[in-house]
Design brief:
Blueprint (H helix, E strand, L loop, with lengths): L1 E4 L2 E4 L4 E5 L7 E4 L3 E16 L3 E5 L1 E5 L4 E8 L2 E4 L5 E2 L2 E8 L2 E10 L5 E3 L9 E8 L5 E11 L2 E10 L7 E8 L5 E4 L2 E8 L3 E8 L6
Antiparallel strand pairs: 1-2, 3-5, 4-20, 5-8, 5-14, 5-15, 6-7, 8-9, 9-11, 10-11, 11-12, 12-13, 15-16, 16-17, 18-19, 19-20
Length: about 220
């Protein structure tokens, strides 16, 4: 989506929110201090990756470098427009345009800050880019972690951490301890683990049920 305000384009990246979960009923191993289970939301954006460096010229020269990933910025007259904000040079963004209805129609483009797009049709670059996606920062995404903290006798210890928005600092955490003498299945907030083997350094387990999503 794109908005124009006072002649200036405000770029809204194409975003898709999804929940990343954990594989069920598979034996997993985690060491003390590691997140045995980590689930949560991410924002995934459509993007392209430059697979081969190439140069284009429109008054001045510009190189699209192999390995760089350009997110989808907006769609203009049936063309998906991809570029990096750092590719602003002489008042224009150097990027790639792909026909939304014909993915084999791929051109280098110049995009102005007010949304005008010029396609350099003399360059055929469909074999120099490939589709991919990128994970973008998310101001209100959440993450849930279940961290193995070790064992004392027949008791196993975990720490639950919950992050919302600021993924550098937990918004909620709780220390938990379970006696697995008679029952090796433990749980918290919908999560169910079958404990297979524990030591002072690691744990083998299966996830039977994932966390309940926070929303």
């Amino acid at each position: 989506m794109i908005f124009v305000l006072f002649g200036i384009v405000i770029f809204i990246y194409s975003q898709e929110r999804e929940v990343v979960t954990v594989k069920l009923n598979k034996v997993l191993t985690s060491e003390i201090g590691e997140a045995a289970v980590s689930t949560g939301e991410i924002i995934r954006n459509e993007a392209i990756k430059i697979v081969e460096t190439f140069e284009v010229k429109q008054l001045v020269r510009f190189s699209h470098l192999a390995g760089e990933v350009y997110p989808l910025v907006y769609v203009k007259k049936g063309f998906k427009i991809f570029f990096l904000e750092k590719n602003l040079k002489d008042g224009r963004y150097w990027g790639i345009g792909i026909n939304a209805n014909n993915p084999n129609e791929v051109y280098p483009i110049l995009a102005s800050p007010i949304g005008l797009v010029y396609k350099m049709k003399k360059y055929k670059v469909q074999d120099k880019v490939k589709s991919t996606d990128v994970i973008s920062p998310c101001a209100d995404c959440y993450r849930q972690e279940f961290i193995y903290s070790g064992r004392i006798g027949n008791n196993v210890k975990f720490e639950y951490r919950e992050f919302i928005g600021d993924l550098a600092r937990p918004s909620f955490f709780q220390n938990l301890e379970y006696d697995i003498t008679d029952n090796n299945i433990i749980g918290f907030k919908g999560l169910r683990l079958r404990i297979i083997k524990t030591t002072n350094t690691s744990i083998d387990f299966e996830v039977i049920e994932p966390f309940r999503p926070l929303r």
